[in-house]
Design goal:
The chain is of the alpha+beta class. It folds into 3 domains: about 5-235, Leucine-rich Repeat Variant (Alpha Horseshoe), CATH 1.25.10.10; about 280-450, Leucine-rich Repeat Variant, CATH 1.25.10; about 455-620, Sandwich (Jelly Rolls). The protein is built from 31 helices and 14 strands. The strands form 4 sheets. The protein has a 6-stranded antiparallel sheet, with no helix packed on it. Strands 7-14-9-12 form a 4-stranded antiparallel sheet. A hairpin with a 2-residue loop joins strand 10 (about 565-570) and strand 11. Helix 9 packs antiparallel against helix 10 (about 155-160). The longest helix is centred in the N-terminal third of the chain and has 15 residues, at about 75-90. The N and C termini lie far apart (about 95 Å). About 45% of the residues are buried. Residues about 1-20 have low confidence and may be disordered.
Length: about 625
């Protein structure tokens, strides 16, 4: 095995410094015991840490064997001594002396660390011996054990040993200073831990020590570190190991220091470490003096969290709605979105006219999540006038969503007037979004108006169902409605109930013509909802009559699920069958079909077939530019 110096080992391995009470061995205990046999000292150290932390009693023999092995690196044996002491929760006075007097400094250092917690009355004697050790690292560990027992009275011992710490002694030195706890000790710890080369090892030393006086030392390190720095995460771990009320108190003082960099750091800590509502007021007061964009952003993010009682900070959020920086205006809106005691439609009215797209998007996004009862009934289209007419597609789409969310029937006519141009336009995305919004507002008997404005045939007469099969046999048969179209007639038809794993015997019934309405703004005539069940293994017919004032050539788009055949004025113009996929959409399409409409009434007849899953058909008429043509019911 490659021999490593103690300082490198300490720098690479997370050292055991706090131990959980005895508990049943966790599921990974067996694997960790096996890992002790690894040739990698890193894996051995990981296993020793784990087994000691969880006090896995069944590992005592294996850990003891590692400790006694003469072929194992002394540093690893020292970790085994620590692990075994924690597993047993004590040391054997008749045996421990040999580790105090061991020839290898790494083992003597570990022995000193064990004496921080164990050893009873004998520990005092052993610590005195180790304080005279020729190795500085051993003496520093002994000083930490001495300081844990004697607190401030240990300063005369700790002082000379911690004047000029090296990386190899930084962890033990930091522990000794923290345990001593005097003003002088904390001042020296602050100096030591602030040195970049010593910070990581110093943090390893104190991160498990619970002492409220360490909190400001830890907090003051953060403003000078990037949040991605490894030491930043270690500081957060050290803070998490402190008593929570003490952290909150320390963070309050930190924020109230008047230093804007600390205010920013404190705000980020509230977001990542402790969302304590009692920190809201101090942070809000400190932010009132902030000038840096990053500080204000961090503060808004912290205060805007639902757990921070954002309604208490509403006035602060509103004060930022007119900030010169768009990112601040957007963020303040997102914070206001979490407030429950305001009418957002009133508060965000001016934000809808903002010159920055992101701000308007934030305002519309916030309105989408608010109770529709607060919206201006009958005036919503006027309220949304600016975003509805925006040249930004994302903003317009969001405005349609707000209209659909909060609008009422009283808003339908104004909305129809404002959005009709989009319904007849060629932008599929905007047309669909506008139609969806209008569909949410329209009275049930007026949805057809939205459908027809887009060029879809909205009013039908329908009849069915006639029995089909997986090969669409009935689709190719001629049924009575094809022979003679008479809306007053009824016909005998057969159907079956298709159940899991089987189908029932055919059942005969009488079918009649009925009115079929397209009740969704996407223009689909749902055959399965218009005709009596079941909609599986079915064939149905749909007839639509439209009137145009003069003869003209137009373009017809047809699609449906699963198959269709279409006649115009008794002439077959299209037939498509989609490949069957079990319990999936099977869409057949015939787009851009050039047809001629006669002046007056034109009749479309659709024969539609379905095997299973969804069943619908849709027809749309446009001119050569894709713009819906005008037509009406005869």
């Amino acid at each position: 095995m490659i021999r490593l110096t103690l300082s490198i080992c300490i720098g690479l391995v997370v050292h055991i410094s706090s131990w959980s009470p005895a508990a049943p061995p966790p599921a990974g205990a067996g694997r960790m015991i096996q890992q002790l046999q690894s040739e990698s000292w890193i894996e051995q150290a990981e296993a020793l840490h784990y087994l000691g932390e969880y006090r896995v009693e069944m590992a005592a023999t294996a850990v003891g064997a590692l400790l006694e092995s003469q072929t194992v690196h002394p540093w690893t044996r020292g970790q085994a001594l620590l692990s075994l002491s924690h597993i047993k929760g004590k040391v054997d006075p008749t045996e421990f002396g040999k580790w105090v007097a061991h020839e290898h400094p790494a083992i003597r250092s570990s022995a000193a660390e064990v004496l921080e917690t164990y050893g009873g009355n004998s520990a005092v004697t052993w610590i005195k011996i180790l304080l005279k050790d020729p190795d500085l690292s051993v003496r520093c560990h002994a000083a930490a054990a001495h300081a844990k027992r004697n607190k401030a009275a240990a300063w005369n011992v700790v002082d000379p040993l911690t004047l000029d710490p090296a990386i190899s002694t930084a962890r033990a030195s930091a522990r000794a200073l923290a345990f001593t706890g005097t003003a002088e000790a904390h001042a020296r710890l602050t100096t030591q831990i602030s040195q970049p080369g010593l910070m990581r090892e110093s943090l390893r030393g104190i991160r498990s020590i619970e002492d409220p006086q360490l909190i400001p030392i830890l907090l003051n390190l953060l403003p000078n570190l990037e949040e991605t720095h490894l030491n930043y995460g270690m500081i957060l771990t050290a803070l998490q190991n402190q008593e929570w009320k003490a952290v909150t108190s320390g963070l309050t003082a930190f924020i109230q220091s008047g230093n804007e960099q600390k205010v920013k750091t404190g705000a980020r800590l509230i977001t990542t470490l402790t969302r304590s509502p009692e920190l809201g007021a101090p942070l809000r007061v400190a932010l009132s003096q902030a000038t840096q964009i990053e500080t204000i952003e961090a503060g808004l993010i912290a205060l805007g969290s639902a757990i921070m009682n954002p309604d208490e900070h509403e006035e602060f959020f509103r004060s930022k709605l007119k900030h010169e920086q768009p990112s601040i205006r957007s963020l303040s809106i997102r914070c206001l979105a979490h407030c429950k005691e305001i009418n957002h439609y009133e508060v965000l009215r001016e934000s809808l006219d903002d010159s920055n797209y992101e701000v308007v998007e934030a305002a519309l996004g916030a309105l989408k999540r608010q109770p529709a009862v607060n919206a201006p009934k009958g005036q919503l289209v006027s309220y949304l006038e600016t975003p509805l007419s925006s040249n930004n597609e994302s903003i317009r789409a969001l405005a349609y969503e707000v209209l659909a969310h909060a609008g009422s029937e009283a808003d339908f006519r104004p909305a129809m007037a404002a959005l009709e141009e989009l319904l007849t336009g060629t932008d599929e995305i905007l047309r669909s979004a506008a139609a969806k919004a209008l569909g949410a507002l329209a009275p049930e008997d007026q949805i057809g108006e939205v459908v027809a404005a887009q060029g879809y045939l909205a009013h039908w007469m329908v009849i069915g169902t006639f029995l089909n099969d997986k090969e669409h046999k009935a689709f190719h048969e001629i049924h009575e409605p094809e022979k003679e179209l008479d809306f007053d007639k009824s016909y005998k038809a057969t159907y079956i109930w298709l159940l899991e794993g089987r189908s029932d015997k055919p059942i005969e019934r009488e079918v009649t013509w009925g009115e079929g309405l397209v009740d969704q703004t996407d223009g689909k005539l749902s055959m399965s909802s218009q005709l009596p069940p079941p909609g599986s293994f079915a064939v149905g017919y749909a007839v639509a009559d439209i009137h145009v004032d003069s003869e003209r050539e137009v373009f017809l788009d047809i699609d449906g699920d699963d198959a269709f055949r279409v006649w115009l004025n008794d002439e077959k113009i299209s037939e498509k069958i989609a490949p069957y996929q079990h319990r999936k959409d099977c869409i057949a399409e015939d787009k851009g079909l050039k047809i001629k409409l006669v002046a007056g009434t034109n009749r479309f007849i659709v024969k539609s077939a379905n095997i299973d899953h969804r069943w619908w058909v849709r027809l749309r008429l446009t001119d050569s530019n894709g713009i819906p043509i005008p037509f009406r019911k005869p």
